[in-house]
């Protein structure tokens, strides 16, 4: 009998011990020894209407990952792998491909995704599946106005781009008075933009900031980027005889506007474009020397003065320029390739290490927590600004339109770049400027009203 009791007691003791062990939290050493796999999904349009720009963005992402992996991966010891999906320039396809990457490939993070419309569709998938969308190019303001918890945007929202061009004009009042004999606040402004969410948001930023300074906006005209004829828009702007044209286009319509404006004899003293189709090699290829002296507002400083970067990131920039130029025959001085390279570096060099150090793992939750806690100084980013993100509890309210944005890097800003001899160079702000800005189109430019 005693033997039976002893056996029973031994069994009970062992069961309690096993249950007790199962309830013990993992030790720090266990976390340190846990295998960490860095695997993400990348969605970009490499076919369809946006293929040229989507391919440039994808190439920028791939090159950043390649450079990091050559040094052992994240933190020098965690190689990065990824699955790619082509959105085919279609929001519905982008959403379905994002869903596939999440459900069949198990990715905790999606990176991409070029257009604002595609980004919006993917953000809904990310929110439903509780997966991070590290959005690097969808700039439309309304992307982050739904209060979603899993979408984060590092670059400035599109209305900030529109605000920047007007602020730049107002900051050159002395030049304007000398050249045009009037104050900056007395300028006549024309706003022309494609009518999608991106172009509309930029134009809203233009208009709101112009109103703030009391500028006369004589024309605010929207058009479809799929238009095959912009002559009626151009003639309307020509009739207003503006001092400043603020133009937001994609590639094909940007090239068409330039060609038809010349044919119709449209001329203007100051012309500022807003990224999109003007800050890309395809635009330069399409208009040739007409690109020279065009100002573009971009989410990154293209071909900047490296003094604004830390020594480490200045070296990374030099290596990127060399590799890209060797591979593609042209330097990476446009926003599409540079923005994706810079933000991929930021994500894997600053955000992911913080996630791993805090949690011992790479998951959607650990990455989201690291993004919300991030406070990256400007010198540790090739983007030209630091990183600190708004949260559902503390959304960021933009100062141009007064809208609330969740998941926005509110340290982000826009930059002024300008073409010289076909090469885009940063001209504003001063700490990243490589050349001095030429505000007025030279008399030799076919669209110039200056003598």
Q: Tags for this entry?
A:
disordered N terminus; 2 domains; five-stranded parallel sheet; 451 residues; alpha/beta
Structure description:
The protein is of the alpha/beta class. Helix content is 43%, strand content 15%. The chain has helices spanning 2-23, 28-33, 51-69, 91-105, 116-129, 158-170, 173-180, 197-212, 231-240, 251-263, 281-287, 311-328, 335-359, 364-373, and strands at 38-44, 80-86, 109-112, 132-135, 151-153, 188-194, 216-223, 244-248, 270-273, 295-298, 396-397, 404-405, 415-420, 423-428. A seven-stranded mixed beta sheet has the order 7-6-8-9-10-13-14, sandwiched between helices. It has a five-stranded parallel beta sheet with strand order 2-1-3-4-5, sandwiched between helices.
